[in-house]
Each structure stands twice: as C-alpha cells, then as structure tokens.
Design a protein that fits this description.
Helix content: 25-40%
Number of strands: 9
Strand content: 15-25%
Distance between the termini: 13 Å
Order of helices and strands: EHEEHEHEHEHHEEEHH
Shape: globular
Largest sheet: 6 strands, mixed
C-alpha cells in the first residue's frame, strides 16, 4: 500500500479554491451528529469543500428519531442538478436515501458521472428508527449499488442487502461476494456490529473486498465509548474526502479509519443521550 499522506488541510499558501469539491447526498440530522451535518464537518476537517443534496429532514437528538419529512423527489433532483452544474465534484457519497422515488431521481442523475461514489447504505438509526423504506431496498440494490466505487455496509445493512446472516469469516467473504455481484466496485464490510469476542487483541476488523480477490482484513483498535452516533456517516465521508484528494481506495479507507479512531477517542455528548465522534479531532497520516 502506498504511504500517501492523509488529506487534511491544503498546503500553507494554497488558495481555498484548490480544495476538492465533495458532495453528500443524505438526510439532515437536527442533532448535528450524523447525516449531512457529520459529512460536512468531516469534509471541512479533511480539507474539502462540501456541497449537499438533502434527501430527508429528521427530527432527532441523542435520544432517538421522532420524525422524518422527505421533500418531493423532484426537489431532490433539482438540488442535485444545481450542484452538478455549479461545482466540479471530485467525489461524492450517499447516505440516507429514504424512498424508492428519491433513489430513482438520484440514480438518474448520477449515472454517467465520472467521480467516485461512496454508498453508505443507511437503513436504520442507532435508536432503531427505519431510515429506508421497505420498498426502497430493491431500488437501492438495483439503481445505486452499480454506481458505487465503494459500498460501506455495517453487519445489519449487509445482512439486509444480501438476505443472509453474517457470523463467520466465511460469511463475510460470501456477503462481500454477493454485494460485488450486485455491481458495487468494492465493498467495505464494517466490523463495529460484530460481537466483541470476534476482536483480536482488542482490535475490530473491517473487511475490504475487491472483485476477484480475497477480502483484506483492516483491523483497528476498538475504542470503548458509548458516543458512536454518526460513525458510519463519518467514516464514509472521510473515505470520500480521501478519494476526492486522489488517494487510492485502500489508502483512503485506512486514512478514514484512522481519522474516525481519533474522533472516537475524544467522542462526547453535547446534549442528552448518545453523542457523536469528535469531528474536530486532529487528523493523522497513513503510515504514521
């Protein structure tokens, strides 16, 4: 793996316009810890300029989600048209897409774009509130996964998308194979939802799968904290930032893991309930 520095801030004296334009297509978290808000914080810390397409408004805080309001798909499409015509997007990610109609509108406009797309297949909030309608799963797999340079499911998301239980390393390999067969360019199956007994030496493992290759284990120390709201959003946004600054896929993933780890080390609760990672934590470099 190339020892390429993780993107952080542009070199001193660089004009802000040299920062890559990064796009997040996701839901808004009124509590500020996940979704659009987490993505924008991550983009900014890692040296990018963030643009947004908001697919849903959520009423939530650290205690849970109390409501969801989705704009008409036509307005989601209008946001995306405006961003794509107004900014030279270097990389993009999707998060909460909510409905089949919104997915169709987004996929129609992303088809044929040249920048790498990271798909975080958000299905459920940490408090157990559905963030993807049941009839939208098929649209997600059929229309969005084939556009993805990388899809980043956690264990429950991967189980829902593949229709199989995932418990063993053999299950991990099979789930990755099925997701690649759906058209994703690569898969990062995250290890945070696996039982801690699967950890080796206090390290949890994310698995990176590429076509025609055995999954690559990417272990990181597990941080003992209850403040994990928005970790998936943060990781996928950090990967997007790395890709937007020209890192190769594995380098971007490893740099994003290290950024999230640093953020979790100082995670805190700004209000009631579960808090987010500390997005302003210092960045680290690959190979440090």
């Amino acid at each position: 793996m190339n020892q390429t520095p993780q993107p952080s801030q542009p070199p001193r004296g660089a004009h802000p316009a040299s920062r890559p334009c990064l796009l997040t297509i996701a839901g808004s978290d009124s509590g500020g810890g996940a979704g659009i808000q987490a993505d924008l914080k991550t983009f900014s810390v890692l040296g990018g300029f963030g643009a947004t397409v908001i697919t849903a408004l959520t009423a939530q805080n650290g205690l849970g989600v109390t409501g969801i309001h989705a704009p008409p798909p036509e307005f989601v499409a209008a946001q995306l048209d405006a961003v794509l015509t107004g900014f030279p997007i270097a990389a993009a990610k999707t998060g909460m897409l909510f409905s089949a109609a919104i997915i169709e509108a987004v996929a129609d406009r992303l088809a044929g774009t040249a920048f790498p797309l990271v798909v975080d297949p958000v299905c459920m909030s940490q408090s157990g509130h559905a963030l993807l309608q049941d009839d939208a799963v098929e649209a997600l797999t059929a229309r969005v996964l084939p556009l993805a340079a990388l899809v980043t499911p956690n264990r429950p998301e991967a189980e829902r998308l593949t229709g199989m239980a995932i418990a063993s390393p053999a299950d991990v390999a099979e789930a990755i194979r099925r997701l690649l067969a759906l058209g994703a360019g690569a898969v990062l199956l995250k290890g945070g939802h696996f039982d801690k007994t699967a950890d080796v030496g206090g390290r949890l493992t994310d698995w990176l799968g590429l076509p025609g290759q055995a999954p690559v284990a990417l272990p990181m120390p597990r941080v003992e904290t209850e403040h994990t709201h928005g970790t998936g959003c943060t990781l996928s946004a950090a990967i997007t930032a790395g890709l937007g600054q020209g890192l190769g896929l594995e380098d971007a993933v490893v740099c994003a893991q290290r950024y999230l780890h640093r953020c979790l080390e100082t995670a805190f609760a700004p209000g009631l309930g579960v808090g987010p990672p500390d997005h302003m934590a210092p960045c680290v470099c690959a190979g440090e």
